[in-house]
Amino acid sequence: MPAELTDGEMTVLGLLIEQPRHGYDLERVIEQRGVRAWTALGFSSIYYVLDKLAKRGLIEATSTPAGKKSRAVFAVTSSGRELCATATRDALTALTPARARVLIAMANSPILPATEVAHGLANRLGALRQQLTEVRATRVAQQPLPPAASAIFDYSEAMLVADINWTEATLDTFNKESTMDKYDIKKAHKELYAPPSKDFTVIDVPEFQYLAIDGRGNPNTAATYTNAVEALYGVAYTLKFASKKTLGRDFVVAPLEGLWRADDPTVFHSRRKDQWEWTMLLSQPDWITEDMVRTAIDNARAKKDNPALDNVQLRTITEGTCVQILHIGSYDEETPTLDRLHNSYLPDNGLTFNGDHHEIYLSDPRRTAPAKLKTILRQPVRPV
Questions:
Q1: Strand partners of residue 318
Q2: Phi/psi of residue 316, each to 5°?
Q3: Is residue 45 part of a domain?
Q4: One domain for residues 258 and 154
Q5: Tens digits of residue pLDDT in 104-113
């Protein structure tokens, strides 16, 4: 079985079978015929290919002007002609491999915003259209063309047109996604997620479902807390992508929320965090089901084995009447506001506790200065 020929080697052999040529002549023909539109063969690689073919005995120099090695004229040997014919027969039946780099990009596209994917596809579309224009211009310049050359240009144009059509359709899909209405609980229930920062307000919180996980300990130091939050987000994003793919319904991952409790409520004022008990939450759209959550947990576990995943649940919570306020500042500076709520506002308005202290974290503490953190402080209440 003879050694295979690369695309570049086949191209050069074919041109030398037409007639003996030197490197500059090969470059001229390749440029004139638009060969680079359908094979990767740069000018600098022509001499490399010629050297390889000569060492394999597939071509030989027929003349070399004194002191002008680059002007050596090469002709195909009998073995080179035979191998080129064999490779050509095989290539006529070979299917085009679908190995375009854009396919890898599409496989990885969920890690990017839909608008960014659309921008990349738009740039690709422009480049493809420009390439098609150049191929057609090269074809016109070569007229009249023999049937084989016409077939080459037909194929190049067909591939580019197909790629343009695919890119246009894919871009249209991502443009629609980038403008698609995504469910966002902060917008759907703005009255619950945009309270004033100066005065307490009374609201009625309807039934919501959440991804929930329970724990105990200092949120700043307990590994159980870190694992719990990581597990919630892992499952939430898995659900988001699954919902978008299988149901065509997308949503914004909700802000992290927490229910806080203790046998002795004064531990919150004194910030004795080791005694805090908590339930961390991520609100979910009402179309998310138990089965979807179980599948998402399994998929998240396959990516990273987090022990907290075993404790993630889909839980329904109805808080009813609540009092809330927006706190701006570090978490440890919540105490004066909570003291005012517990010891002034509630008794002055004939109200008492009717559930766990609830916090909603609107800011990412990893990217926000403590003085600018925004946290909703919410307390379910009932008349005394």
A1: 207
A2: -100, 130
A3: yes
A4: no
A5: 888 787 777 7
What's the number of domains the chain is made of?
3
Domain of 196 in residue numbering reads as: 185-383
pTM of the model: 0.55
Do 238 and 300 form a contact (C-beta atoms < 8 A)? yes
Q: Kindly state the average pLDDT of the residues 305-324.
A: 96
What residues contact residue 242 under an 8 Å CB cut-off, 6+ apart?
292, 295, 296, 299
> Mind listing the pLDDT tens digit for each residue in 18-45?
999 988 888 888 888 877 766 767 666 8
Query: Which of these, 324, 293, 309, 299, lies nearest to 209 by C-alpha position?
Result: 293
Is residue 14 pLDDT above 60, yes or no? yes
Of 179, 201, 232, which closes a domain? 179
Domain membership flag for residue 2:
no
Q: Is the confidence at residue 1, as pLDDT, over 50?
A: no
Predicted confidence at residue 288, as pLDDT, reads 94
Question: Environment class of residue 231 by beta-carbon count within 10 Å: exposed (0-12), middle (13-18) or buried (19+)?
Answer: buried
Picking from 262, 269, 271, 267, the residue whose alpha carbon sits closest to that of residue 338 is 269
Residue where a domain terminates, one of 179, 195, 224: 179
More confident residue, 376 or 22: 376
Query: Rounded to whole angstroms, what are the CA distances from 169 to 51, 122, 128, 173?
Result: 45, 11, 14, 6
71 within domain boundaries: yes
* Higher local confidence (pLDDT), 68 or 234: 234
